[in-house]
Design a protein that fits this description.
The protein contains 14 helices and 24 strands. It is an alpha/beta fold. It folds into 2 domains: 296 residues, Aldehyde Dehydrogenase, Chain A, domain 1 (3-Layer(aba) Sandwich); 194 residues, Aldehyde Dehydrogenase, Chain A, domain 2 (3-Layer(aba) Sandwich), CATH 3.40.309.10. It has a 7-stranded mixed sheet with strand order 15-18-19-14-13-21-22, with helices on both faces. Helix 7 links the parallel strand 9 and strand 10. Helix 1 crosses helix 4 and helix 2 packs across helix 8. The protein is globular and about 75 Å long. The protein starts with 13 loop residues before the first helix and ends with a strand. The model has no long low-confidence stretch (mean pLDDT 97). Belongs to the aldehyde dehydrogenase family. One of its GO terms (molecular function) is L-glutamate gamma-semialdehyde dehydrogenase activity. Its EC number is 1.2.1.88.
Length: 521
């Protein structure tokens, strides 16, 4: 039986395409509506709304989305605080029942939500379907895991007292009101995952969606609302980060934060959370500058497939995207020829169409950044092997389209160290696997990494690589493709601040604090 994951999405059954097309038609017919915030169990329209246009075609207005203010943020926090005692006391069986209902609703709406994601973010249909299904799986996996962990309530041995019974217990309890701040690139999954984790462990939640992608958060809020969560347990805000992001982080009711985004912003939030009257938890996933090493013993066809998928999937706009490639000189020319062929074969255009795999970047700023980086490559001595163009003519005129780019760059080029978050892959020749691993580790970030080589080389790579998520000889993606229940996802060094990965054995415990209980009878 077919199960959609990021590994299996490259060969879907035909029915998936026909159902997506039908949903896309339905969603397009409803574009332009006004969308509300969700506070204390009610959908609430802010005083101001902002039109969101599709990066595929700027003439297409997806909807008008409420712009929350600091006052709205305070209302949401107050509602979450008021709902906390009852939600925390709700039996685990009831909490998981409600959250499994959320998963069920997401799956029932998977095609409609995916169509909206494709239009809003610019990802292709299979990427959008994958993200939506991943979100449903987050809710299910975290419910299952919380139950398997016995709600983190464990009986310990009694004290060895001769004349009394002294019972001991370790109990994990929720922190309180948890703030979730999400990025634009996976606005449904990277909202739904931490929201599910915070809720199943007994916290209440205020979600702040990315400014570029307010529709995704609203669609998630619809699923949580319709699942019947009590008022105030989950709240959703959309709007500019400057207006509400700081208000949420600094709010006196904020007990913990999950943030996904850039290193600079993540570090700022982590520092804010550690300061104050007492430290508060922050789970920050802060991007990657991900590397892949290809040795002379690699299967080059497999390597080329995985490299293209990881470097250019979602337009390179994901923290796990491949951006640094190190190839043993003996096979470099052959591999690059294969990469050029595969890049040339990528369908570029409206990603809601089945023939197009590579859609637009998310915004005008991203398109400008792409042009600036390409110019930096050229002036810095790099050779553009493929791509390097901003597309502005014909069918591309109204969107933010660029070409997937491959550049051979000198060792001292500054962009080896900068997370561009765009479809730009830099590569260079190396003499050995050891040199490749040394170069891969020479980064302040350590999210994902990949290798193509022999069994012995893979073992050596895994022993030495400094990254939280690793892949070996994987055609489905050299550095991308983690799925809840299959691959935990979290970074080392500047890519993450907790050392714990999303959907791992250790993730849910971060949303709780331990209390030791001793009772003498």
């Amino acid at each position: 039986m077919y199960k959609l994951t990021y590994s299996t999405m490259f060969d879907p059954p035909p029915e998936m395409h026909s159902r997506f097309d039908a949903a896309l038609k339905e969603v397009r017919s409803q574009l332009g509506a006004k969308h509300a915030l969700h506070i204390d169990g009610e959908d609430v329209h802010a005083q101001q709304h902002r039109d969101k246009r599709s990066p595929i075609d700027r003439d297409v207005v997806l909807g008008a989305f409420s712009q929350a203010t600091a006052a709205d943020a305070d209302r949401a926090m107050q509602a979450a605080k008021a709902a906390l005692p009852k939600w925390r006391a709700t039996p685990v069986a009831e909490r998981t029942r409600l959250l499994r209902k959320v998963a069920q609703l997401i799956e029932e709406r998977v095609y409609q939500i995916s169509a909206a994601l494709a239009l809003e973010v610019g990802k292709n249909r299979m990427e959008a379907l994958g993200e939506t299904q991943e979100t449903a799986d987050f809710f299910t996996v975290y419910c299952d895991d919380f139950e398997k962990q016995q709600s983190f309530d464990h009986v310990l041995p009694n004290d060895p007292l001769p004349n009394a019974v002294s019972r001991n217990r370790s109990v994990m309890k929720p922190y309180g009101v948890w703030v979730v701040i999400t990025p634009f690139n996976f606005p449904f999954a990277l909202a739904g995952g931490p929201v599910a984790a915070a809720l199943v462990t007994g916290n209440t939640v205020v979600l702040k969606g990315a400014s570029e992608t307010p529709w995704a958060g609203r669609l998630l809020a619809d699923c949580l609302r319709d699942a019947g969560l009590p008022p105030g347990v989950f709240n959703y805000l959309s709007g500019p980060s400057a207006a509400i992001g700081d208000a949420l982080i600094q709010h006196p009711h904020t007990a913990g934060v999950t943030f996904t985004g850039s290193y600079d912003v993540g570090m700022k939030i982590a520092r804010q959370m550690i300061q104050g009257r007492y430290p508060r938890p922050c789970i920050a996933e802060m991007g990657g500058k991900n590397a892949c090493v290809v040795t002379a013993k690699a299967d080059l066809e497999r390597a080329a497939a995985g490299i293209v998928r990881s470097a250019y999937g979602m337009g390179g706009q994901k923290c796990s995207a491949l951006s640094r490639l190190y190839v043993e000189d003996a096979v470099a020319d052959e591999l690059v020829a294969k990469l050029r062929s595969k890049i040339a074969a990528l369908g570029i255009g409206d990603p809601t169409r089945v023939e197009n795999w590579f859609g637009p970047v998310v915004s005008e700023k991203a398109q400008r950044d792409y042009a600036r980086y390409v110019e930096q490559l050229r002036t810095g001595g790099a050779t553009i092997v493929a791509g390097g163009e901003v597309l502005t003519q014909g069918a591309f005129a109204n969107g933010y389209f660029v070409t997937p780019t491959l550049a051979e760059a000198p060792a001292d080029h500054a962009l080896w160290r900068e997370e561009m978050f765009l479809p730009i892959l830099m590569w260079r020749r190396i003499r050995s696997l050891d040199e490749g691993v040394d170069l891969a580790n020479d980064s302040d970030l350590g999210l994902t990494a990949g290798v193509y080589g022999s069994d012995e080389e893979v073992k050596s790579f895994l022993d030495r690589i400094e990254a939280g998520v690793t892949y070996a000889n994987r055609p489905q993606g050299a550095t991308t493709g983690a799925w809840p229940g299959y691959q935990p996802f979290g970074g080392w060094k500047g890519s993450g601040n907790t050392g714990k990965a999303i959907a791992s054995f250790y993730y849910l415990a971060q949303y709780m604090r331990e209390q030791s209980q001793t009772i003498v009878e």
